[in-house]
UniProtKB/TrEMBL annotation:
Lineage: Bacteria, Pseudomonadati, Bacteroidota, Flavobacteriia, Flavobacteriales
GO annotation, biological process: Mo-molybdopterin cofactor biosynthetic process
InterPro entries documented for this protein: MoaE_sf, Mopterin_biosynth_MoaE
Known partners and oligomeric status: Heterotetramer of 2 MoaD subunits and 2 MoaE subunits. Also stable as homodimer. The enzyme changes between these two forms during catalysis.
Catalytic activity: 2 [molybdopterin-synthase sulfur-carrier protein]-C-terminal-Gly-aminoethanethioate + cyclic pyranopterin phosphate + H2O = molybdopterin + 2 [molybdopterin-synthase sulfur-carrier protein]-C-terminal Gly-Gly + 2 H(+)
Full protein name: Molybdopterin synthase catalytic subunit
Gene Ontology MF terms: molybdopterin synthase activity
Domain of life: Bacteria
Pathway: Cofactor biosynthesis; molybdopterin biosynthesis
EC number annotated for this UniProt entry: 2.8.1.12
Species this protein is from: Arenibacter aquaticus
Length: 147
């Protein structure tokens, strides 16, 4: 099991489809895994007070956020029978339509991955100190409220 070390989950800018595909491909050699589940968080072009969101600029207290990601990860490994888990979150500007959060969980069985993935994403949204500045097409902005 891949646990214990505090990892840096942050990547600069958007998480690319190529990065996601390569992450999945690396697991073909892990033949004890029977199921994977993936969550991809994408920046929406919300309309707020008549203005369209063009991007979200993410900032974080990285050390504190990485520690919180680590705690969530460890608690999830203790609660579910997982083979591995990968979490990546963007820092910096991510355009509407681009991926800002990639969570990838693997287990010998499918039921575990479905439940674990839901648990992890909800914990991330409620606990990790990451801040998003919604940047509108005219470059004005407001701070995002997590829902």
């Amino acid at each position: 099991m891949e646990k214990n070390k505090i990892k840096n989950v942050f990547v600069p800018g958007a998480i690319t489809p190529d990065f996601i595909a390569k992450s999945i491909a690396k697991h073909q050699s892990k033949t004890s895994i029977g199921a994977h589940d993936i969550f991809l968080g994408q920046v929406r072009a919300d309309i707020i007070d008549g203005q369209e969101v063009a991007a979200i600029e993410y900032t974080a207290y990285e050390e504190m956020a990485n520690l919180k990601f680590h705690e969530i990860r460890e608690a999830t490994f203790n609660k579910f029978n997982l083979s591995c888990m990968h979490i990546y979150h963007s820092l910096g500007k991510v355009g509407a339509g681009e991926i800002c959060l990639f969570v990838f969980v693997s287990s010998p069985h499918r039921k575990e991955v479905f439940e674990a993935l839901h648990h992890v994403v909800e914990e991330i949204k409620s606990q990790v100190p990451i801040f998003g500045k919604e940047v509108f097409k005219d470059d004005s902005y407001q701070w995002k409220v997590n829902k």
